[in-house]
Amino acid sequence: MLEVAGREVTVSNPGKVFFPEAGITKLDLVRYYLGVGEGALRGIFDRPIVLKRYVHGAAGDFFFQKRAPEKRPEWVKAVTLSFPSGRTADEVVVTDLAQLAWMVNLGCIDLNPHPVRAGDLDHPDELRVDLDPGPGVGFAAVRDTALLVRDALADVGLSGWPKTSGSRGIHVNVRIEPRWGFDDVRRAALALARDVERRAPGLVTSKWWKEERHGVFVDYNQNAKDRTVASAYSVRPTPEARVSAPLTWEEVPTCELGAFTLRTMPERYARLGDLTAGMDEAPGSLEALLELAKRHEAEGMGDAPWPPHYRKQAGEPPRVQPSKRKQAPLVTVAKAARKEDALAGLARWRERHPEASALVGEEEVLVDSMRGRSTTWTRIRVNLRRVPPERRPPAAPPDPDYDPWEKIRSSS
Predict the structure, then answer these.
(1) DSSP reduced 3-state for 171
(2) The predicted structure's pLDDT at residue 315
(3) What is the mean pLDDT of residues 40-69?
(4) Residue 394: helix, strand or coil by DSSP?
(5) Does the pLDDT at position 246 exceed 80?
(6) Residue 123: other Cβ atoms inside 10 A
(7) pLDDT > 70 fraction of the chain, expressed in percent and rounded
(8) CB-based contact 101:2 (threshold 8 Å)
């Protein structure tokens, strides 16, 4: 039982190991968040949060829980969100450390808030720039792209607040005035992504389809409604318990992902304080970015693809992968609930077809994290464009062939 913010918070199974390789327990995780509490709270304060629960620890499966648990303390509040599907859900809203500790006790390792406040769910106050390196792309390329993002934001009068993603990339958050709806914020993010790509076309891409990407992808679709990203100071489910660590711009050129973990962050936080402390003081305007979007559209660059589960948008290009439009030989080789099982299926495919496999490089292997009803699953596809038609393996069912909707169909 912990005394937090004037309330008693129970930590069940406090000695349960959540990070086996690092020897970190659930209680260690709770105490970490309390130790960096002001910073962690700033990233999620008064925002609806999707509960991403790792009830068996970082090495186990997880599931998304949008709806706040019915059995919760009366001091844990919720707000009703509507989603692109038309459904609604009451999501948890955190405004103090007791609520944060309660949420971590549910098995929430990282924190995934929406970019809106509970008092205005239709107008984001944060534009999120997610820099995602492609296969084989090193972290140095991500750092270089982040600096280009900083310059592009400055050119339109905006300030970015960088942080490591805690995984492989960098996030740059931009505090904005809550005057624009989700569609306009996404449109502004797309204009920014294209501007950064223009500055370094060999390094950066704004292309949505994985088979068209190279270098570092600027994921503009993280600004679509119902998308969330890990907030500042979030612990990520990696073996060493990496943290999504706020940075100064001076640190970006030389920072390394492995330097920021649950073990190292408390000392850094005590020494530097909360590097996001001034973020809320000067929200910026999207007007210049939206003007840039207008110029792009006048030059023939219309909307870009949306995530597949969103309704078709006016002006959106055909929602068909380029390889299918061009009749490129793209085959699905594995579908699995766990990524490692899908990768094992890919390895078996390579063993069965060594001649074709020798012509398939990293850029021809597409590893997709797919959204199921309450968790993600993995699909792996292989583009056989470099394999002559006469040497392509015959069509076969994926191995494994996971169906995320089987249980739902069988129960209906």
Answers:
(1) strand
(2) 76
(3) 94
(4) coil
(5) yes
(6) 18
(7) 97
(8) yes
Three-class HEC string of 188-233: HHHHHHHHHHHHCCCCEECCCCHHHCCCEEECHHHHCCCCCCCCCC
Position with higher pLDDT, 272 vs 305? 272
Chain-centre distance for alpha carbon 35: 24
Q: β-pairing, 170-175 with 365-371?
A: unpaired
What string of DSSP letters covers 256-285? -GGG-BTTTHHHHHHHH--TTTTTTSS-B-
What's the mean pLDDT in 100-104? 97
Q: Distances in Å between the alpha carbon of 279 and those of 157, 160, 268?
A: 15, 9, 19
Is the pLDDT reported for residue 199 higher than 50?
A: yes
Cα-Cα-Cα-Cα torsion 22, 25, 26, 30, nearest 10 degrees, comes to -80
Please give the pLDDT value at position 321.
74
Which amino acid is present at 411?
S
Residue 49 and residue 228: Cα distance in Å, rounded?
8
Closest CA to 220 of 236, 237, 204: 204
> Directed axis angle between helix 182-199 and helix 287-298, to 10°?
70
Please tell me the predicted confidence (pLDDT) of residue 201. 93
Tell me the CA distances in angstroms from 159 to 176, 200, 201, 300, 392, one per residue in order: 9, 20, 23, 28, 50
- Counted residue by residue, the chain has a size of 412
Considering only 31-40, 87-96, 363-372, which range has the smallest mean pLDDT? 363-372
Residue ranges of domains in the chain, CATH in brackets: 2-120 (3.90.920.10), 323-411 (no CATH)
For the chain, what is the mean pLDDT? 92
Strand partners, 112: 50
Q: Which residues contact 281 (CB under 8 A, 6 or more apart)?
A: none
Burial 172-184 (b: 16+ CB within 10 A, else e): bbbbbebebebeb
- Amino acid identity, position 304: A
